[in-house]
Amino acid sequence: MQKCILLTGFEPFGGRQLNQSFESIKDLQGQEINEYLIIVQQLPVVWQEAANIVIKSIKKYSPMAVVMFGEASSSEFIRLEQRAVNKRANYQDNLSNFPPSLIINESPDASFELFSTLNLQNIYNSLINIYPVEYSNTAGEYLCNETFYKVLNTDSAQIKGFIHVPTSPQFNLPLAIKIVVSKIAADLSDPNSSIK
């Protein structure tokens, strides 16, 4: 099977018609970037189901990297998420369900925080002179964080990370995301890269 990178974004929620996390990546489906086939998936805003879909796709496609995207309505920046935490907020999903627990992994030895394995500094450097970008220390406690935490908690070898995008970007967001994905693909192809 051809080497690939898996990108995920969410369906609309909160009464909105679009979700920029999916709109910004959907046109990359089937493209080849640095010899990596790009696979794009839209995830439901449903507790547990979103993470389960990503984990199943990892098993199916064996991607070299998994990059999850979500919306951040409070930010005008592309936010590079550094960590996920073992917490859920008591919010309803698109099926009007509340989370089954406020703790994602209830095992007594579960880590409270898990960290992105993307080379965030390289991504930041590829964007900073063109687009608004910042590091973030919290992916929230909604579906974005839950999905990020569960995917990081798998024992698969892929590079994994999460990026939040603005709800109403004042710049060409799809182009910015293509730059991000191109940088990740270049890092994967670099024999001296530290992310593999």
From TrEMBL:
Pfam families linked: Peptidase_C15
Cellular-component GO terms for this entry: cytosol
Presence of the UniProt keyword Transport in the record: no
Stored Gene3D superfamilies: Peptidase C15, pyroglutamyl peptidase I-like
InterPro entries assigned: Peptidase_C15, Peptidase_C15-like, Peptidase_C15-like_sf
Keyword tags: Cytoplasm, Hydrolase, Protease, Thiol protease
Family, as annotated: Belongs to the peptidase C15 family.
Protein name listed in UniProt: Pyrrolidone-carboxylate peptidase
Originating organism: Hexamita inflata
Lineage of source species: Eukaryota, Metamonada, Diplomonadida, Hexamitidae, Hexamitinae
